[in-house]
Specification:
Chain lengths: 167, 175
């Protein structure tokens, strides 16, 4: 089988797998026409690179490109830090964890899991609170439920700030 | 992490920029794409995401960013991608009024988009596997695309050289 130009290009670029490369090499030793074709494929690539050389030398990125990248990175770090400070306490998962812990305390693990499913199907933090609060009120009374909700939102290591989640 | 970005920028920025220029046909867009790609690299690595082949990763991100931008601008103008390409051809951005644009415009007309990208990526030193990854091809087709591209370029050079050799003989000698 005479190798096609694509295979010869891959052979030239040492991109063929070991058995195939050896096969092509053996073929080129015996087939004069393909050996010439392989030479032409190599010469053609050199010519193409030469034609491209001017483009390569003239199409260059701006000199301050790296500086711009680094300042973009600094900007991103600043905004990520600012966002992180806000986003962490507003974390919906943390809210869920705290609500789950309280529900389990009062209703036991099984009932809590059931109630969580109902309550957690409501995505935004605000409606989650709206779902849990009457639940707790019904079982604990208004005063105790209010205290538990405060515990959920303000207890723990951090106060939960919910504004960004509900937006 | 910044050190890694600096090193990768020094090694790859020029090649990425040329690739971006070929895709977007516009210096500003190419530069924006390259910068954004490095920022994304930094963000991905900071988030603990491993990047096995950073070079291929960067080329792929530049490609995605610029093709998305081209699509978005074609939607805004409510014309097809091809029309945007022609539009870009007809109105090269003023900064690229150097001969590199002339050469690349010639190649744009000569090669199919895939051949053009394949040639550019190989000329920038990517291995076949990396080119296949960037373009979403089987690496077996990379050789065939390159062979077609270089054949077209050679034929074009030959056609270009013939009249020029003739013309040079006609030129008066420089004083």
């Amino acid at each position: 089988m005479h190798p096609d130009p694509g295979t010869l290009a891959a052979y030239r670029d040492r991109e063929l797998g070991e058995p195939e490369a050896r096969e092509v090499a053996r073929h080129l030793e015996t087939c004069r026409r393909c050996a010439q074709e392989a030479e032409r494929v190599s010469a053609e690539w050199e010519l193409s690179l030469a034609a491209d050389a001017q483009f390569r030398s003239q199409c260059v990125p701006p000199e301050d490109g790296l500086e711009r990248v680094l300042s973009l990175i600094q900007e991103w770090k600043r905004s990520a830090a600012a966002e992180g400070a806000e986003a962490q306490p507003s974390n919906l998962d943390e809210l869920r964890r705290r609500i789950g812990a309280e529900l389990e305390l009062y209703f036991g693990a099984e009932t809590a899991a059931l109630l969580e499913k109902v309550a957690f199907s409501r995505r935004p933090a605000e409606s989650l609170i709206a779902a849990v609060e009457p639940l707790l009120t019904a079982f604990l009374g208004r005063k105790a439920a209010g205290a538990v909700m405060r515990q959920i939102l303000e207890g723990g290591d951090q106060r939960l700030c919910l504004a960004p989640e509900t937006a | 992490m910044e050190q890694e970005v600096v090193r990768l920028y020094r090694e790859n920025a020029a090649g990425l920029f040329r690739y971006g220029f070929v895709l977007a046909k516009n210096r500003e867009a190419a530069q924006d794409g390259v910068q954004e790609a490095f920022l994304r690299y930094f963000v991905a690595r900071s988030g603990g995401q491993p990047v096995e082949r950073p070079k291929a990763w960067l080329f792929q991100v530049v490609r995605n960013l610029l093709l998305d931008a081209l699509k978005a601008s074609s939607r805004r103008k409510e014309v097809g991608l091809e029309a945007v390409r022609r539009w870009a051809d007809a109105r090269p951005d003023p900064e690229s009024e150097y001969r590199s644009a002339e050469m690349s415009r010639r190649l744009w007309g000569l090669l199919s988009p895939r051949e053009l990208e394949c040639f550019r990526l190989r000329a920038e030193g990517l291995r076949y596997g990396e080119i296949a990854e960037v373009l979403g091809l089987r690496s077996g087709t990379v050789g065939a695309l390159l062979a077609r591209a270089q054949k077209k370029i050679r034929e074009d050079r030959e056609a270009l050289m013939r009249p020029r050799l003739f013309a040079e003989r006609e030129l008066p000698h420089a004083p």
